[in-house]
Amino acid sequence: MTHNPNLLKPPEHVSGLTTLNKSLFEKTVTLPCLVIKDVKISSVLPHVKKFLLKLDNFKPVRNISENEAHIYLNPDLVTRWSDLSADTPLLTESNLQMQTCTLTYDNFSLESVFRAVLPPQIEGTSSFTKVGHIVHVNLREHLLPYKDLIGQVLYEKVPNCRTVVNKVAIIDNTYRNFNMEVLQGDNDMLTSVKENKCVFEFDFSKVYWNSRLCTEHERIVTMVASGDVVFDVFAGVGPFAVPLAKKKCRVFANDLNPESFKWLNHNLKKNKVASGCCDSYNKDGKDFIMNEVRNLLPGFLNTKKVYILMNLPALAVDFLGCFVGLFDDSELVQEFDAPVVVVYCFAKGENCEQIAKDLLFEKVGWDISDKIIDLFRVRTVSSLKEMMRIRFKLDREILVKSGNQKRKQAPESGDLTAKKCCVF
Ligand SMILES: C[S@@+](CC[C@H](N)C(=O)[O-])C[C@H]1O[C@@H](n2cnc3c(N)ncnc32)[C@H](O)[C@@H]1O
Ligand SMILES: *[C@@H]1O[C@H](CO)[C@@H](O)[C@H](O)[C@H]1NC(C)=O
Ligand SMILES: *[C@@H]1O[C@H](CO)[C@@H](O)[C@H](O)[C@H]1NC(C)=O
Ligand SMILES: *[C@@H]1O[C@H](CO)[C@@H](O)[C@H](O)[C@H]1NC(C)=O
Known about the structure:
Its EC number is 2.1.1.228. It catalyses: guanosine(37) in tRNA + S-adenosyl-L-methionine = N(1)-methylguanosine(37) in tRNA + S-adenosyl-L-homocysteine + H(+). Pfam families: TRM5-TYW2_MTfase, TYW2_N_2. Belongs to the class I-like SAM-binding methyltransferase superfamily. TRM5/TYW2 family. This protein has about 425 residues and is an alpha/beta fold. The chain has 3 domains: about 25-105; about 120-190, CATH 3.30.300.110; about 210-415, Rossmann fold (3-Layer(aba) Sandwich), CATH 3.40.50. The chain has helices at about 40-50, 110-115, 145-155, 215-225, 240-245, 260-270, 285-300, 350-365, 395-400, and strands at about 25-35, 60-65, 70, 95-105, 130, 135, 165, 180-185, 190-195, 200-205, 230, 250-255, 280, 305-310, 340-350, 370-380, 385-395. The chain has a 7-stranded mixed β-sheet, sandwiched between helices. The chain starts with about 25 loop residues before the first strand and ends in a 25-residue tail after the last helix. About 35% of the residues are buried. The structure holds S-adenosylmethionine and 2-acetamido-2-deoxy-beta-D-glucopyranose (3 copies). One 2-acetamido-2-deoxy-beta-D-glucopyranose binds near residues 58, 102 and 103. The site of S-adenosylmethionine (SAM) has 19 residues, from loops.
């Protein structure tokens, strides 16, 4: 048998199909198979495990009768006896035989179906995200003719999927939710996901949720210790706020979207967060900083470690000006452990670390290299667009009005006083 790289792929004639016709996927193949008689499967299996053929809904090990079993092997790995490990005890070359099988649509993975059907050239054909029972895709122009097929394949092949939606147009709206078209399944956007040992429920069409931020949420939840104080300026439905409050941090969580605010409160209850651990607000971030943060922060300085989370990568840096000169000299104790700002931004270009720093300095008003704790690449959004996280110390020099001369040296942006900040 010679190796045929297309053997396990759907038939070539499915290429370009826009309506799913499952019978077109039927394919008869001959596969390498160990036919064993009067030998225990369990004594052979450990030696051939890595060669087993893996297909959807396909059993590579089959009990044929009382004393006969068939073990199907991957033809990409095994075409002749010598491809198997040298020491396959109890068997000889005669055990390796060719068997005919009919593969159907059900035996091909969704990736292999998409690869066979959709145009090859462009990335992202099968990139989709699952949010509870909802699978969402962001189909580019060239894939729109295939949207019915893509919807149906995802609906059938992604476990526990009940709804497939396509993001319609890229709208950078205020609340960061998507405009969606249902491609397949129920028009039910109310969903539930688990993250960091908490349950989050929300209406996916009305709020922001990104499953790809799961590990970043986890990192922050781990970074902050019980008893610390957290101001979450752009809290969404609570992926930072809820687990932090659950681990007994003192949390103040805010979101401008009334729907996010509603689900944030719902999720606090749902996860049995003790009352008094988390206060929630439905305000503009600027208002939240100028009032809640301003009023509460002095009381925590020196007694608590304070974090200010700002996860709105497209805009959060524009809110940093709010912190500059937020207090008069006499309002803050002379020495304090500086609160840590955790701010996210997008860096578009080659040197994302430098780009993120420049953005930070521009928005604060001067070079604050001395206050930066670290920069971290969170994820690649697209080629040359990175989501970055910067942590820096919000020290007296930033927080107190007259306390700094450097502000006057701000690059072209002039004097960023508290009053002028946050204008977009
Ligand atoms: C990128 S989401 C992040 C949500 C959450 N922290 C997370 O990690 O999933 C940004 C959130 O900021 C909210 N938002 C947008 N503009 C805002 C503003 N001016 N003030 C307060 N919240 C705002 C949006 O409604 C959205 O929930
Ligand atoms: C599906 O393809 C088969 C050919 O394999 C054809 O006979 C059948 O009519 C097609 N079904 C539909 C609904 O187009
Ligand atoms: C392919 O999947 C179908 C549906 O689950 C299954 O019944 C069939 O046995 C599989 N084909 C092979 C060759 O195992
Ligand atoms: C295979 O099936 C026979 C009955 O058909 C049974 O006696 C035997 O134990 C089975 N072997 C395994 C490994 O399942």
